[in-house]
Tryptophan--tRNA ligase
Amino acid sequence: QPRVFSGIQPSGGLTLGNYLGALKRFVDMQDEGNFETIYCMVDLHAITVWQDPETLKRNTRELCAGFIASGVDPEKSILFNQSQVPEHAQLAWIFNTVARMGWLNRMTQFKDKAGKNRENASVGLFAYPSLMAADILIYHATHVPVGDDQKQHLELTRDIAAKFNHDYGVDFFPITEPVIEGAATRVMSLRDGSKKMSKSDPSDMSRINMTDDADTIAAKLRKARTDPDALPSEVKGLEDRPEARNLINIYAAFADMTPEQVLADVGGKQFSEFKPMLAELAVAKLSPISAEMSRLMQDQDEIDKILRRGAERAREITAPILAKTYDIVGMVR
Ligand code: TYM
């Protein structure tokens, strides 16, 4: 059976980009029923940039609440945090010996996150993609749903799998398919249509947080930057209009429509008319999720229990794959 793996970092609150680009797609793939689905809070990735320990714990639990409130069912899917399944880090070490410095040097996320002061970036931040490849390959996952910004990391995952197979003369790790689909694979900042919506943007007005209340969501969308023209009736007309395109994509993703279908309905409208429609749709979809998140957050023990149970189920898959990997590599056991 094809197997899906994906992860989200508990390094801050969830944004609309995480929801539309990833979480909502996770739920779709779970509910389609064709896949075994495995979803992870990647706490070991989060600490590649220093996290306050108490905040990290809170963010991990809140992220778990976000998964469940969005529709990930911990019975149907395996849901856990990365550090409770040690095989991720163990396989990552093997992959550190497979990946080449040159490959990791080309990673744009590393360059962005390390900034100018590369000498001061953690070794973990540099090796981040090996751990990500291990996350995926320790399950022999075949499909990985992500937003567009993870594409380069997934290509590296394929390179690592292929080099491992080649170096040891085996056909052991699968060459994974990225699943970058839907209208919202790249949700942009509400203040600048050329920048990705991100939890690290200093302006809170640039993003919608999953925990924002209805008034805040409406206000952020009302104030979102746009151009002065009316909406076009075809997707072609969105070229060179990144802000307009972003709002149409967001609408389409919420409504489970294509941008073409949305424009067929709203083409010709001014933003003054379209923005309230978008706000109404966004609030209708997001407020039940944020209400459920706060409800789930009341019972921390229950969340911790779900994560522990998820980790146990995950280890049933990861332990034999790590053992086989060690055999292939030549570790005496
Ligand atoms: P992270 O935590 O930055 O983001 C989680 C998911 O949300 C997607 N995403 C977006 N999608 C559309 N528009 C946006 N503005 C936007 N911002 C974020 C991301 O593409 C991602 O799918 N390295 C990963 C976490 C990870 C992982 C993995 C993913 C670790 N191991 C294994 C898949 C498989 C990351 O930092 O995602």
Q: What stands out?
A: The beta strands are 3-8, 36-41, 78-81, 143-145, 177-179. The chain has a mean pLDDT of 97. The CA atoms of residues 84 and 137 lie 17 Å apart.
